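Review form for a predicted model. The reviewer records the input and the model, then writes brief findings.
Reviewer: anonymous (R2)
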Amino acid sequence: MPQAMTALEIQARLRRLASKDKAKILQRFFKTGPGQYGEGDMFHDIMVPVLRKLTKEYDDIPLADVFSLLISGMHEERLLALMMLVRAFTRVITF
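Model under review:
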């Protein structure tokens, strides 16, 4: 059985998928300049459908690694962590 990926391996994968040119556009759109509401937030520019697909690959990631992604400075890393938590929650809780 393959070993679960770590947060560092996931972050490296996201960096490989990144688009720096489009990320600059997102930084302007999300108002990340000094004094703006998203100050300091950084982007890889990975589209949400790609992140949703990746979420399904990381079912076995340890919770500590999910939390490492959750506190990242990168927008997509935090979003991926939230998607992982939602997926884990919906697998455990049935309504």
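Findings: The chain has a mean pLDDT of 84.
Further findings: Helices lie at 7-17, 20-29, 48-57, 63-70, 75-92.
Recommendation: see findings above.
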